[in-house]
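Lecture notes, continued. The same structure-token format from the folding unit now serves as the input rather than the output. Read the line below as a description of shape only.
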């Protein structure tokens, strides 16, 4: 396996299942983009009112780091106010959802391990993401 150096503009924004109302994601580090076997890393931008419906992952752990905006992160029945600088850890089998309640985009990065197969199955690119060995743009 080789490493990867890319610019975020090389990936398109995609809609993922259960992400609603202008919730867009770029799947940056995945098995498809660089051969990563044990981790997914992506960036998301949710427009005002956009959200990811409550859901859980059987095996994957997730870490969220919020770069811009503000909103509500639901974990179980508990609401947590989030914004720039917030960090959230979600263990497997934990119901959670993200809601942009602010006036600007809610932008955050997410790491998941192990990778979530449903993200990969639902991803239908309009143009192919960078592949290992492709020259950088």
């Amino acid at each position: 396996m080789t490493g990867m150096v890319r610019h975020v503009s090389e990936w398109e924004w995609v809609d993922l299942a259960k992400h609603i109302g202008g919730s867009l994601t770029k799947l940056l580090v995945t098995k498809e983009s660089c051969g990563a076997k044990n981790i997914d890393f992506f960036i998301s931008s949710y427009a005002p009112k956009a959200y990811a419906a409550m859901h859980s992952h059987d095996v994957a752990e997730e870490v969220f780091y919020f770069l811009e905006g503000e909103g509500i992160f639901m974990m179980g029945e508990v609401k947590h106010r989030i914004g720039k600088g917030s960090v959230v850890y979600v263990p497997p089998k934990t119901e959670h959802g993200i809601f942009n309640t602010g006036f600007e985009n809610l932008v955050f990065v997410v790491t998941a391990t192990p990778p979530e197969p449903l993200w990969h199955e639902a991803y239908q690119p309009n143009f192919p993401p960078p592949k290992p060995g492709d020259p950088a743009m």
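Point for the exam: The helical segments are 31-34, 117-122.
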